[in-house]
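request received
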Amino acid sequence: MKATHQVAFCAVVLLAAGFGASRLSSRESAPGAPQKNAAPAAAPQSSVERGRYLVENVAMCEECHTPRDSSGNLDESRRLQGAQIWIVPVHANPNWANNAPALAGFGGYSDDQGSDVLEKGVGPNGENIRQPMHIYHMNHADAQAIIAYLRSLSSAYPQ
Ligand code: HEC
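response:
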């Protein structure tokens, strides 16, 4: 029994040594090659960057919160500064919101209020957000990243 343990222990040590050596040699043979555990190039570097990625590429907040020009294109000079809603429901919906408020600067909301909107779909007035705004169920880190990003934008909102 004891001998088996010693053999097993030796095997572990040898394996570990071999692993270390092979890592070393692979690094030596390919200097400058990307390391296995290096972050992928496109990975967001900070909370603000992650928030920007979520806002622009995943949750598409701009589709409703940025006004459009006369051709219906997003007016990037007024990015996330609040907009009239241009989509209408197929079936009449008395609870439909016609306006999406400004988000740039996020001056009108505390972090907790922002979290409630993005994690629970509840507005600062304690009521469910009206359509066509989505009821998002984001995780806390994503919501915080979005809030950090919105706060980093220059604001058109009274602070
Ligand atoms: C499909 C359109 C749409 C999209 C996409 C959208 N919103 Fe909205 N948002 C609205 C509308 C409409 C309202 C107003 C809702 C209301 O009056 O109840 C609103 C309201 C809000 C409010 C204010 C809630 C309140 O009660 O004061 C916040 C904050 C908000 N949106 C943040 C976001 C963020 C952040 C994103 C992206 C993650 C986003 N929205 C994406 C349409 C949208």
